[in-house]
Amino acid sequence: MTAPVEDKIYASVVGSLPDLSGRCYAITGTTTGTGFWAAVAAVRKSAACVLLLNRPSERTAESERQVVAEGKGASKVISVDCDLQSFASVRAAAERVRGLAAEFGGLDGLVNNAGVMAVPDARTQDGYDVQMQTNHLSHFLLTKLLLPSLEAAASVRGEARVVQHSSGARGNHRAAGEGNLESQFFRQAAPGALGGDGMEACFNRYHQTKLANPVFAMALHEKLLVAGSKIKSLCAEPGVSATNLAANMTAGHRQARKAAARPASASPKDKAKAKARSPQPAGSNFKPQSAADGACPLVEAAFASTASGGDFYMPGEMINGTPVGMAVKCMTAGKPTPTSASMAKQFKNEALTMSQANRLLLWAESERATEEFKVGALSKL
Predict the structure, then answer these.
(1) Which parts of this chain are annotated as the region Disordered (predicted)?
(2) Is 253:120 a contact under the CB 8 Å cutoff?
(3) Which of 45, 144, 210, 273 does the annotation list as catalytic?
(4) Is residue 206 among the annotated active site residues?
(5) Is 210 considered catalytic here?
(6) What is the domain partition of the chain in residue ranges?
(7) Under CATH, what is the fold of the domain 10-369?
């Protein structure tokens, strides 16, 4: 059994955050990993209400108990049933969040954290790629439905925030071709029609979703600015940390093989690709940062007093080519601000995120899949 990875920066980052008394936050995907530690940060800083959006399960109930214990009774912690693989569930969750947040004058922050990585080429009950609906489309819909609640809080307390959670997979080194967003991944399709279950195709679909996150964040930032809104749209990426993403990926492929009665072992080529592209587990020679430390960019984007609309937080230290450590802004106010030459090179000054074509495609295809999303009086970029 491998030893847990030690937290190095989480406590100091949380200690630097402002008091969150009187504020209400909703966070998706809080059973483990970065979402759990974002919720812990909120209750440690005395947020009045923290809403945990997850599919109902014993893990959900246990994580709620743990978050409640961290708050020592100062915060109201409530689980809200939300299955991101069902638009109907997302709509029901949004309605419940609006009602709960109304008690506090609106929702101060929506943290769209939940995600899956490189799972098989399967479909949700709505007919969309599991990764795209979980990682982006349902968060797009949730953001749209909760915008009035965010506006209400912003009008009372001066600001509200929406945070998307991306990853290093947004870069085109993880993608097929140039790596731009493609309409086919946002649309309904037959199972297996978006590349199949090979690791290269699985990670290409993952890239599409993780690029969608900052593209959505920055497109929304632009729209909010033009509309004169006090809502801030931000993004974060955790670098590599010891979360359950890789384990969930493996379980997904094992389940898919079992359902299809395939052999249990992947090809050597696919195994090599999976190892190269997946976060290395705690206890390996690499030693990624802890899940709590990996949550720090997300925590700062959601709660730090220095965060502004259009900011994109990521770890600022590179070890063996992998980002870890204290968060820095790779984008500030919607513009690239890489803090190192390697960061600028790896993400090409966030060229894919800055692409107006990607923003237009994302907004149009996301509306097509969910519903029209206007910001203020605007319907176009």
Answers:
(1) 251-290
(2) yes
(3) 210
(4) yes
(5) yes
(6) 10-369
(7) Rossmann fold (3.40.50)
